[in-house]
Design goal:
The chain is an alpha+beta fold. It has helices spanning about 25-30, 90-95, 105-120, 125-130, 140-160, and strands at about 5-10, 15-20, 50-55, 55-60, 75. The chain starts with a strand and ends with a helix.
């Protein structure tokens, strides 16, 4: 039984839906809105595969109920692209091979976008520390760090 009406703005589009009280935000995004770029991983907040931006803050959407997002602005991995052009972080992850199997990549990209909004020239240590809440089983993080560094450079060049 869907018993809570929520209104959210997802990737710039207003969305209204009825959700059950127990519906996780990640489930709502994937199943109701059919935005499957956000991945369901551990469902206990450990892996970060489900990371989204909610009102500009990085959120592990497996730890948030959909009804808690009522009135919020949500950005998913699909919402980063503008005018058929990848976001610089997405572009850098492709160019620098930041994702191998791709499972963690959406969460890593979202965490990287959040990081680079706060610090456009992070050190390797800062990148590693700030992405430590997102787990990758494939890359050993070397390519991920290079991807974030490349994205930071691209974003700095855009700002000039």
């Amino acid at each position: 039984m869907s018993d809570h009406k929520i209104v959210v703005t997802v990737n710039g589009r207003r969305q209204e839906a009825w959700v059950e009280a127990r519906t996780l935000l990640v489930t709502f995004v994937r199943e109701t809105l059919e935005l499957t770029g956000t991945h369901i991983g551990c469902v206990i907040g450990e892996c970060g595969a489900c990371s989204l931006l909610v009102n500009g803050e990085l959120v592990k959407s497996c730890l948030m109920l959909a009804m808690q997002a009522d009135g919020a602005e949500i950005t998913t991995i699909e919402g980063l692209e503008r005018d058929a052009k990848l976001h610089p972080v997405q572009e850098a992850f492709v160019r620098e091979l930041g994702g191998q199997c791709g499972f963690c990549t959406p969460g890593m990209v979202m965490a990287s976008v959040y990081l680079l909004r706060q610090d456009n020239n992070p050190s390797e240590e800062t990148i590693r520390r700030r992405l430590s809440g997102n787990l990758c089983m494939c890359t050993g993080y070397v390519q991920i760090v290079k991807s974030v560094q490349a994205a930071a450079e691209m974003l700095r060049e855009q700002d000039q």
